[in-house]
């Protein structure tokens, strides 16, 4: 018996009017439509026609620091992800629906209900990207002065996921009976309290939604710090990462799959999906020109503010064409550790000026940009996938809707021809698409 | 100049598979579809074709006390309202979308974003039913042992609405500029922090969603206690109530419109909409038989448990055919004061046995049932509306989808013929439908 060939997994990353920081200034973006339902409906239906595993929505709970530069020159407004994703349920049929919701400023009972509802009404297509909120400006929108430290923030996240999982499991799969003759709606012996009492939460349960079609929504995480890797190795089913080079990606891939053994998990029960920003041209020259054009649209104040945030260093006084100043030590960073390491590593490795670094990392927000003809982009994705650097990719179109249309029409068919990517959905749930098992309900406390 | 004639407003109350407590046992209900998107899509589209002002979703954050009776014989599961309502955005075009969200166990920044997102993407059709959570079993799902007392619960609700309103106003209507040439996305002089510091919340803002099409979602409330009336008179634009008789409804209507003067508000800026459960038959006899059939489907354990909860008294030991035991005093009730008064008043007034009272109030969950031919139901609605007892009704179909279909097909045309109800939407937002003004943004703190 030969092993089933691995299949590449693709997420369609839906961010503002494109992932590139200057997307909103591009003539290819429908910038006015950022709060228009039809814009999102078109995105979702294009992604579904192209057979993406899922649509993915990022989030943040505040307008970033350096208000003026951001407010003036960047897109700081964004739809609330779960609200938007719910809206897309009714206009799609098969594609997975993944939303980011922070564990730092939500309640597990509410979150468990929202995702259980989404999972039921979408027929088992939901995924939750579990994040922690690490910015003081987010804390100040939630009655706190400063954000939680790295340790307690992750401890809260871990307990949050536990509580939510217990709530999803609080109804056994066959608890709902519906016998109209005898008047028996549910079997109470199959509905359990969870009686959770932990460091951060006390939750009694049961949930007032029965068990979701997928058992639980697919759990996504993004942390690449050591604590983040442990949390993901223990609880995540998909991990989003940001890597610039094949070697870094391979090293991370080995590390997290290795770490899963500590938790008795099979390596294939977690899919690693780095973000990729594809800039596609009919010729390589055209693609380069597109990239160049986008870079020129970056407003320097915004680029510098983003770089300052990534590096936790105020760069506003420095010359754009000079070198970087001294940076803080990694261990002094609380929040965005992996982002700090990523950006400072690039700066050190390639000896870039501030302007060069700004162009390199702010455009794609730290993710790898692949610029070229569709064949080249497909070959690069293949080489990472076959090189055990990942199980798929989160595709971040630079501008929307054109950037997704281009990828769907030109790169996906090549991946399909190579036998790397599906030509039709074979299952109906997101777990089916991702090849993830449906978890059995754990026994909790009898009512 | 003559005053514009008042127009009746109608909400389509979407509750489980029908508002009647035994709806799930009725052969007319699609009980299996309670977590099926098509069930809700059909409801929403029927209500929109009938020109209802809005769809309304109630909520509760726990499975009620007396777990076993409820779990066994009642529907205790329900979709999370905001998630479900968001899903209906994409399959409707004009009808308003109202969801209940508790102020007791949510954060104002999250809620303000969710509703702002819904309002934008629905083209100005959102409404928020502001409630407080008053059950210990809800508290225990949110890391508390007991629910908040009436005073602090309402104080928190009041402050919550203030904070959310400030957040919706944190972007002036014309703050988003989008000048792709100069790179100016927004005018920072028109985006303000709110710097709210109150008893329950400290929130800095601004919101990361710009001002919604309606300025703010329509604010709905339901409290009928004196504190509830004051909060509604100050902040609500729609009030849902439950009255059994014309006189009670008229007295409440006068009282709340009078109370609004304290807050310098015009009486027409708040619409009073009592709940009505219509049981419709082609003949009166058929209607009575339908009602009788539904009553017989009520499982006595559930009816008694509901009555016990409403009256804050354990009735499980008493004979169904005997009188009520002594009840607690109104001032000792914390949570559900108006429900307690409603039910105990009926019991006192009409001298009912436990079984009679159970049938009277649990079927329609305390709301008025009108049983008869379509003409009779329309005439009853007209008499309350013309008798200054209300500005419209929240229609609670006893079972679904048939109960809404019947009302839409038989009662609405009569109301339209009488000139009481619209035959077409004349505006596009829920504020348009309800005849409510769009609030101007209040100035807050400059960034």
UniProtKB/TrEMBL annotation, chains A, B:
One of its GO terms (molecular function) is monooxygenase activity. The keyword Oxidoreductase applies. InterPro entries: Diverse_substr_monoxygenases (IPR051260), Luciferase-like_dom (IPR011251), Luciferase-like_sf (IPR036661), NTA_MOA (IPR016215). It holds the Pfam family Bac_luciferase. This is LLM class flavin-dependent oxidoreductase. FMN binds at residues 59, 100, 150, 154, 224-225. It comes from the Bacteria. Belongs to the NtaA/SnaA/DszA monooxygenase family. Residues 23-291 form the Luciferase-like domain. It comes from Paenibacillus lemnae. Keywords: Flavoprotein, FMN, Monooxygenase, Oxidoreductase.
């Amino acid at each position: 018996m030969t092993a089933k060939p691995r299949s590449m997994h693709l997420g369609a990353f839906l961010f503002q009017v494109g992932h590139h920081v200057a997307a909103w200034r591009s003539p290819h973006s429908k910038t006015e439509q950022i709060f228009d339902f039809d814009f999102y409906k078109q995105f979702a239906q294009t992604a579904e026609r192209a057979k993406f595993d899922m649509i993915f929505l990022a989030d943040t709970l505040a307008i970033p620091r350096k208000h003026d530069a951001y407010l003036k020159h960047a897109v700081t407004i964004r739809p609330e992800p779960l609200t938007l994703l719910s809206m897309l349920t009714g206009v799609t049929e098969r594609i997975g629906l993944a939303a980011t919701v922070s564990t730092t400023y939500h309640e597990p009972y509410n979150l468990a209900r929202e995702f259980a509802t989404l999972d039921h009404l979408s027929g088992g297509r939901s995924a939750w990207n579990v994040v922690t909120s690490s910015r003081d400006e987010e804390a100040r929108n939630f009655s706190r002065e400063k954000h939680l430290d790295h340790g307690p923030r992750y401890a809260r996240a871990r307990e949050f996921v536990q509580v939510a999982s217990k709530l999803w499991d609080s109804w056994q799969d066959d608890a709902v009976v519906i016998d109209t003759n005898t008047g028996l709606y549910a079997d109470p012996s199959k509905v359990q309290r969870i009686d959770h009492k932990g460091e951060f939460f006390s939750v009694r349960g049961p949930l007032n939604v029965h068990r979701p079609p997928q058992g639980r929504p697919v759990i996504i995480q993004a942390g690449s710090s050591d604590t983040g890797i442990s949390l993901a190795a223990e609880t995540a089913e998909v991990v989003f990462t940001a890597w610039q080079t094949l070697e870094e990606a391979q090293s991370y891939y080995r590390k997290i799959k290795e770490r899963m053994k500590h938790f008795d998990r099979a390596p294939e029960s977690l899919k690693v999906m780095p973000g990729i920003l594809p800039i596609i041209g009919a010729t390589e020259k055209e693609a380069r020109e597109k990239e160049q054009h986008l870079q020129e649209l970056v407003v320097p104040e915004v680029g510098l503010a983003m770089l300052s945030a990534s590096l936790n260093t105020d760069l506003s006084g420095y010359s754009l064409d000079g070198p970087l100043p001294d940076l803080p030590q990694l261990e002094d960073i609380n929040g965005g550790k992996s982002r700090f390491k990523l950006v400072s590593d690039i700066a050190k490795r390639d000896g870039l000026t501030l302007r060069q670094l700004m162009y390199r990392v702010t455009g794609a927000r730290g993710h790898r940009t692949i610029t070229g003809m569709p064949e080249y982009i497909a070959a690069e994705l293949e080489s990472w996938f076959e090189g055990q650097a990942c199980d798929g990719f989160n595709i971040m179109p630079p501008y929307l809707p054109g950037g997704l249309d281009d990828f769907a029409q030109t790169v996906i068919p090549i991946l399909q021809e190579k036998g790397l990517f599906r030509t039709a959905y074979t299952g109906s749930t997101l777990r089916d698409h991702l090849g993830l098992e449906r978890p059995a309900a754990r026994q909790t406390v009898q009512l």
